[in-house]
Automatic annotation (TrEMBL):
Alphabetized UniProt keyword annotations: Signal
Annotated DUF3857 domain residues: 44-207
Limits of the Transglutaminase-like domain: 256-328
Gene3D superfamilies in alphabetical order: 2.60.120.1130, 2.60.40.3140, 3.10.620.30
Species for this entry: Duganella margarita
Endpoints of the signal sequence: 1-21
One Pfam assignment: Transglut_core
Name of the featured protein: DUF3857 domain-containing protein
Amino acid sequence: MKSTLPALLCAAALLSQPALAADDGIDTSVTTLKNQQTFVVQRDGSYVQDFEELVQINEQRAVAPVAQRRFHFNRTLEDLEVIEAYTEKPDGRRIPVLPEQIKLQNEPAYNGAAMFQDMQVKSVIYADVAVGDKLYSKTRKIRRSAYFPGQFSDTTYPLFRRTDQHTLIYDMPDGMTLKADDPGFKASAPQQHDGRTVYRWDYVQAPTPRIEAGTIAYADYGRHLIVSTFNSYGEVGLAYDRTAAPAAAVTPRIAARAREVVKGLSDPRAQAMAIDNWVRKNVRYVAVYIGNGGLEPHSAESILDNRYGDCKDHVVLMEAMLHAVGVDSMPALINLGWSYKLSPVAQLGQFNHVITYIPSLDLYLDSTADGIAAGYLPGQELDKQVILTRSGQLGHTPLAQLIKIKNHYAVKIAADGSATFDFAREQLGAWEEAVRNEHRNWAKADQQRFVEVLLKSAGVKAHGEVVLGDLSEGASGKGYRFSLNGSGENWVYLPGPVGMPASSSLYVGLAQQVFGLTNETTRTQPYLCPESDFEEDASYEFPANATLLAVPPDMHLASPYFQYSAEFRQVDGKLLIKRALKSGKAGTRVCTPEDYLAMQGDIKKMVRDLRSQFILQVPEAPQPGI
């Protein structure tokens, strides 16, 4: 599997999920008999890539996806030629792919997205394909100019299928030394010829475990081949800055807009927040990747005029506006995803996003993240090493930020088993604006039926309403509170005794956080540590003649991963429940299989509490005349 650099920054990874065997991550439906890629690189970073591939179809489910092969290229910077392609039948017959069976189309992965680019695809459509056939292709890609002049890098991952041969060859001019990070690949001794050095790596077939739920990016722990001519990540950052810095020029119009946005504000942090808010609300995300546009931002003034751009464009406009009011900033290259470990070999491949860094405030801002409030980062950007491009230094985003949820829940149960309920939820911190924004865009019909649908999933026939909180822009940063209330006809079946779940939340709460920890029975891969901060209080009011026969015991636990408490009190005919959960691992967002093993005792205790019940006794109503 090849990591592609086109549409580099601001682009989400679009990966297909292979059909996997039950016991591991290997796709048994296809075998790669040969995958050989040869790069002949020139001193300016341009290159010619010859790519030869032969695969065999083992199962019917592979016919449709494999019988059409796609080759991606940047039409402005690259040429792609299909030299030969054919279907080989089991009896040795070859059915060639004819010129009219090679189709040119725009990059399908971005159809309908807010993106315009000159990536294209040549699709090779094989004829008469069946199980047992072999499909062959040989292509040549000519890259006319490098992303960064005089530099070359490439990244390859295993194919997650049975692979007989997977070979990478790099023919480099002397003076362009290739550094490699190659777990799972075997290097051959470099060969010298005519002032050039030829490097070769062959993939070593080995078990490929399935990717477990919640696991961090495969690049951080799996097999891969990363090659690069860069000497350091600082060199990568400075190369990017040489390309991007001119676009952040301050013009009179930018200066005037910036002064208007910060009018009345003298504190640099308040000014930065105001500019960040203005850019996120007034510059919509549209990526234009024409030529080397995947790496080169447009000018800040053009972004101000057009009111659209991608992450690089947001950053240069932010930089220009901040500079206009005396606040210096710089781009920070970051991985927007679940990768937390940089390869020892410096390359751009892990960095697919760029955000703003303000050194004087030690503050990171992402104006493309319109679902959160200014000053916060999306979860995928926390605890990340970044390249600070202006200085050529590595930085680090915050490990954590405020994300707190408070749930308040009250249920009043009648003698016939019906009930009325009130639920309120408070969002504080990073998620506040995301929920507020979701509610701003909530269809009225869905809002009106929300309570009914929510309780229907629990078997309760109910109706109710949603009371939205303050949706105004001025409320941002002050927390967001909304509520649900209504009634249910068959909340509990009385008379009894009857067991009732000791729930402390009507809507998504800490129980879902804890239950999510049980997705895997064991772990062999590093994964994203559970991080949450919940407080919940609930009250259950019962009929006058009801008796509580049993109440769950209190529980308190504290460990390096969890602080959890559950308390149950009977007061004035009510059962009051308080729960709290705070989770995380000190110093990192990445947990290990050993951490998971150490958590199991705590997880079992929390699950036991969250599945606990209280026992309610309500006597039969006396019959008339008895």
